[in-house]
C-alpha cells in the first residue's frame, strides 16, 4: 500500500509527483538540507510517492520571490510598497485638454502681460538718444530678449524634465542641479551677450558702411552686462517656480517656461535700456567705463566654468550646448536687423510696441509644447533609443494637430489660445495708449493672421524638431527651445513688418500706422 505526504496548497507553486528511488537525495525546500532516502520509505521498506512543490522560476532561472525582492532593493526609498514599478509616474501624459488649458492659461496671460509691458517700454525708449544715435541697439533687442529662449527657457525645460523624472527629489540632488545650472547659464549668458554685440556691430556696419569703436565697445558692455544680470535674476526665479510647482502638484512643463518669459522680456529690455543709456552718458567724459564693464564680466567666466565643469549634471551641456544658443542668437539678430530697418522708418514707428508681444507669445507657446514633448520622450527612454514615439521624422500637419495623442491635444489647446490671448493684449495696449497705431478692424485682421501663422508654423516645426533631435541622440531640452524661440522672433518680426508694409501700401490711413 502506497502512502502520500500531504502538504498545504501554495497558489504560486507547481506540484509534481516524483517517485523516490533508493540512493536518490532530495533537497528540503524549507531547510535547504538534503533528505535521505530512508526518510521517504514506508514501514515495509517500499518507496513512497512524494508531492514536491517547486517555486516557479522566471525565464532566467531566478525564483519569483527573489526577483521581486531584488527589484524592491534596487528601487529608491519610497512609501510606495508596490513591486510592479514602471519607469516613472507618467502624470503629464494623462492630462485632458481642459486640464492642460487650465494650467497653461494663467502663466500664458502672465507672460503675455509681461511682453505687453516690454512693448510699452520699447515704445518709450526708442526715442531716447542712445537708440537714436546708436541704432544698433535695436539689433540687440531680439537677441537679448531671445536669451529667455536660449538660456532661461532651456533651463526651465531641463529642470522641469529633471523634476518630472525624479532627479530633484532629495535635497542633495536639488542643490546639485541648482548650482550646476546657475553656473552654466552665467557662462552661456556672458558668451552669448558678447557674440550678440559683435553681430549687432556687423549687421549695423554692413548696410551703412559706418563703424565707430566707441559705439562697438558700448554695445559690448551693454549686451554682456544685460545678459549676465538678467540670466542671474531669471534663473533664480525659475528654480523657485519649478520647486513650487512640484509641491503644489502642478506640471512644471506647463508653467515654468511661460513664467520665465513673463518677466524675461520686461527685465531684459529694462536692463538693456537703462545700462545702455547710462553707459552712453559716460561715453564722452569717462570713456574707460565701457571697456572696464566688459572686462569685469568676462573675467568672471573662469569661475563659472569651473563650477559647471565639476557638476556632472551640466558638464555635457557646457561642452556640447553652444551650437544651439549661438545659432539661435544669430537668427534672432536677423530679426533684430529687420526691426532696426523697420522702426527707423517714421512710417512704421508703431511696430515697436507690438514686436515683443507677437514674438513673446509665439515663443512662449512653442516652448511649452517643446518641453512637453521632451518630457514625454524622456519617460520612454534616453536620447538615441528611438522609442516608438520618436520614429516619426517628418510628421504631417494632421498628425501634429488632429491626432488623439497627448502632444497633439496640447498643440490644439495652445493654438486656440492665440486669438483670445492677443485680443486681450491688444486691448491692454490700446487702453494704455501705447504705440502709434489705432486698432482698426483691418489692422486686427492682419495682426491676427500674422500671429496665427507664426504659432502654426512653430508648433509644426517643434513636433518635427524635437523628435528629430531625439533620434539623433540630442537632448531636446538643451537643443530645441533656442532654435524654436529664435525662429519665433524671426518669423514674428518678419510677418509683423510685412503686415505693416501692406497696411501702408493699401493706404489704411485710419490705422495711423506711422508716427
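Sequence proposed for the structure above (515 residues):
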Amino acid at each position: 500500500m502506497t502512502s502520500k505526504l500531504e502538504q498545504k496548497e501554495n497558489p504560486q507553486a507547481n506540484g509534481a509527483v516524483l517517485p523516490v528511488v533508493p540512493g536518490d537525495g532530495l533537497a528540503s525546500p524549507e531547510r535547504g538540507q538534503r533528505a535521505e532516502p530512508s526518510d521517504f520509505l514506508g514501514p515495509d521498506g517500499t518507496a513512497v510517492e512524494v508531492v514536491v512543490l517547486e517555486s516557479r522560476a522566471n525565464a532566467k532561472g531566478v525564483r519569483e520571490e527573489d526577483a521581486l525582492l531584488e527589484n524592491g532593493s534596487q528601487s529608491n526609498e519610497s512609501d510606495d510598497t508596490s513591486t510592479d514599478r514602471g519607469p516613472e509616474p507618467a502624470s503629464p501624459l494623462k492630462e485632458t485638454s481642459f486640464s492642460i488649458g487650465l494650467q497653461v492659461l494663467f502663466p500664458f496671460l502672465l507672460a503675455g502681460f509681461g511682453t505687453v509691458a516690454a512693448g510699452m517700454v520699447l515704445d518709450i525708449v526708442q526715442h531716447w538718444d542712445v537708440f537714436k544715435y546708436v541704432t544698433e541697439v535695436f539689433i540687440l533687442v531680439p537677441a537679448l530678449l531671445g536669451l529667455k529662449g536660449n538660456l532661461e527657457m532651456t533651463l526651465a525645460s531641463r529642470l522641469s524634465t529633471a523634476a518630472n523624472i525624479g532627479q530633484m527629489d532629495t535635497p542633495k540632488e536639488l542643490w546639485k542641479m541648482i548650482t550646476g545650472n546657475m553656473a552654466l547659464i552665467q557662462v552661456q549668458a556672458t558668451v552669448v551677450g558678447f557674440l550678440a554685440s559683435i553681430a549687432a556691430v556687423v549687421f549695423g556696419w554692413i548696410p551703412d558702411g559706418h563703424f565707430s569703436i566707441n559705439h562697438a565697445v558700448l554695445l559690448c558692455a551693454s549686451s554682456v552686462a544685460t545678459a549676465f544680470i538678467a540670466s542671474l535674476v531669471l534663473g533664480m526665479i525659475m528654480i523657485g517656480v519649478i520647486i513650487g510647482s512640484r509641491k503644489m502638484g502642478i506640471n512644471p512643463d506647463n508653467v515654468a517656461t511661460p513664467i520665465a518669459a513673463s518677466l524675461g522680456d520686461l527685465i531684459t529690455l529694462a536692463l538693456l535700456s537703462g545700462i545702455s543709456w547710462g553707459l552712453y552718458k559716460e561715453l564722452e567724459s569717462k570713456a574707460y567705463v565701457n571697456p572696464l564693464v566688459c572686462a569685469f564680466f568676462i573675467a568672471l567666466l573662469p569661475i563659472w566654468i569651473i563650477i559647471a565643469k565639476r557638476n556632472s549634471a551640466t558638464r555635457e551641456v557646457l561642452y556640447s550646448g553652444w551650437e544651439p544658443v549661438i545659432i539661435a542668437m544669430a537668427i534672432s539678430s536677423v530679426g533684430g536687423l529687420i526691426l532696426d530697418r523697420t522702426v527707423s522708418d517714421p512710417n512704421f514707428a508703431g511696430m515697436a510696441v507690438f514686436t515683443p508681444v507677437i514674438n513673446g507669445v509665439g515663443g512662449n507657446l512653442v516652448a511649452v509644447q517643446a518641453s512637453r514633448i521632451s518630457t514625454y520622450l524622456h519617460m520612454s527612454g534616453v536620447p538615441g533609443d528611438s522609442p516608438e514615439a520618436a520614429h516619426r521624422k517628418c510628421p504631417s500637419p494632421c498628425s501634429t494637430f488632429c491626432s488623439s495623442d497627448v502632444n497633439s491635444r496640447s498643440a490644439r489647446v495652445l493654438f486656440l489660445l492665440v486669438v483670445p490671448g492677443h485680443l486681450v493684449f491688444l486691448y491692454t495696449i490700446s487702453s494704455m495708449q501705447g504705440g502709434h497705431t489705432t486698432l482698426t478692424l483691418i489692422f486686427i485682421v492682419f495682426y491676427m493672421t500674422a500671429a496665427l501663422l507664426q504659432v502654426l508654423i512653430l508648433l509644426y516645426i517643434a513636433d518635427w524638431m524635437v523628435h528629430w533631435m531625439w533620434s539623433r541622440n540630442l537632448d531636446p531640452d538643451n537643443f530645441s527651445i533656442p532654435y524654436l524661440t529664435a525662429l519665433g522672433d524671426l518669423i514674428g518680426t518678419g510677418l509683423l513688418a510685412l503686415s505693416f508694409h501692406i497696411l501702408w501700401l493699401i493706404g489704411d490711413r485710419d490705422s495711423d500706422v506711422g508716427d
